Model the fold of this input.
Amino acid sequence: MISSLITSFVVGGLFCVIGQILMDAFKLTPAHTLSTLVVFGSILDGFGLYEPLIDFAGAGATIPITSFGNSLTHGALAEAEKHGLIGVITGMFEVTSSGISAAIIFGVIGAFIFQKRNTTY
Amino acid sequence: MEQKQFDKLVERQTPKPVLFVNILKAFLVGGTICTIGQLITFFYIRFFSFTERTAANPTVATMVFIVMILTGTGLYKKISQFGGAGSAVPVTGFGNAVISAAIEHKSEGYVLGIGGNIFKLAGSVIVFGVLSAFFVALIKTILVKIGVVSW
Done:
């Protein structure tokens, strides 16, 4: 248990280091950085490399935004395996529903509860 | 001329130490967030019938819920000022972008304000995630069909 906490700390931290390098060294905005990382995660899954990383690092691989690109690609590929080319479109949100649905639900609830302040973002 | 030389000198001198400190901060903050995520994953595996792989979904939802409170109280802003990419790259940064946009635009009404602007900051992630997933899956499916690679 302790060892998987350490691997998730190190792997998750390394994803953030890549993001920080993109932001500082390549002067990308946060939106560009996150989009790049999502594309990166989706390409990794295309080569079948992201699932082994999840097995190794657990939350260190599922919490960074790269895992969003991975699960989109993963759902599309799983559905394409069953139903052919059309599955690429129909399967896309099969695996990764929770991040978006949770963000929408808690976003609206949060907007109900909390008042605007100049420090939210 | 002297000012230009000075600017060049400043540009050449400053980035390296700042970059290193920022990277260290990002590593620590991002690693800590992922470790908290791993603890929540353990919780879901131990007390609910999730496996190592399926526990990622409830973990993400739980972390977004925590971020809702941190964003509403303004704490996440402080974390992200310290952590930089360390707080933006984990899914908590995605949640923070969505939730803060919702709170920010509440005054413009529920449909046009919240509904229209909720993905203002985080929309690019979804758009390019879906686009790249489409092309990656399309290319791989075609490659499998013509027998170059296997699933």
